[in-house]
Design goal:
It contains 11 helices and 14 strands. By secondary structure, the protein is α/β, with parallel strands linked by helices. The strands form 3 sheets. Strands 6-7-8-3-9-10 form a 6-stranded mixed beta sheet, sandwiched between helices. The protein binds adenosine-5'-triphosphate and magnesium ion.
Length: 334
Amino acid sequence: MNMSVPMPVTLDVGSDGGFAVSVRGLAKRFGEVKAVDGIDLDVARGAIFALLGPNGAGKTTLMRMLATLITPDGGKASVMGHDLVAQPHAVRASIAMTGQFASLDDDLTGRENLLMLSRLLGFRGRAARARANDLLAEFDLSDAAGKQVKSYSGGMRRRLDIAASLVVTPDVLFLDEPTTGLDPNARQAVWRMIRAMAAAGVTILLTTQYLEEADQLADRIAVIDHGHKIAEGTSHELKSALGSGCLHVMLADPRRIEDAAAVLQAKLGLAAQAGVADASLSIVTRTAAEANEAVGALIAKGIELAAFSMGSPSLDEVFFALTAQHIGEVRDDV
Ligand SMILES: Nc1ncnc2c1ncn2[C@@H]1O[C@H](COP(=O)(O)OP(=O)(O)OP(=O)(O)O)[C@@H](O)[C@H]1O
Ligand SMILES: [Mg+2]
């Protein structure tokens, strides 16, 4: 991507250790719900960092606090060296967030929307037109530029939404579920844009429920559940922390599924995840020998297998193992 606005330069590295985003003990509750319950994060400048978690994990709440849209109840955070609470204007000047311009005007064309924003943000005359046209080209919307936004598909609208947040190139871009609901092609297009923005020096913090998305895009992933960070690392680190492999079994008799899950859990100390087929289970394993023993234990219990295989764990399987472990820890504490 060819960013035609010069990158803002921030010289003040300050007490944030040079991180684009630095978070310590950040917390937010809504009534009884601890939406974010003391999270620490450091996002390196220029990185793509993913917050991965299920519905209600606290991802949006964390991001909205970092974008100064809601005030934290506790903890500290800085964005590009600016304190979230003490210097909210400076924070706002260095960020952009999708959704912020969700008020794209449906009756205007894509070009008119970007032109209007460019003018609002200080571009004049020819410069505003050039900025709008550059963004339309970068986001593959030139052909649709003259059409009203209400005629756009979900993917086109999402791209225009992201383009609108980049009229002025931010230091840090927050993307809350940038590809939810998009078809595979549109998702790939948004991924390409995210990678191009990172290559141009923009730090990107995104939330996703798609394990594959975090795996594909992010330099680093924090797994969030119930307002807590339950794991953090590269995709590779997360996979290898739990196990190097994943055992998939297909039972001859689907009625034995609960017995089989119990045997696997007892043998491997992790929860087994039910597969798409109702007679299948998968479970993260540390070694191939361990997987072998687990298969042996199933057979010893008279649980017949139609098939079994070993593979690399997907982030999905890693996430399941992590959250199941976390639930186990919470129960142990009770
Ligand atoms: N404005 C609000 N008022 C009351 N409760 C809220 C509010 N915003 C969020 N919550 C609650 O806080 C928790 C975390 O919500 P949040 O939207 O941050 O999760 P999320 O990880 O973004 O989930 P999703 O994947 O569904 O977008 C949930 O239990 C949610 O119901
Ligand atoms: Mg959310």
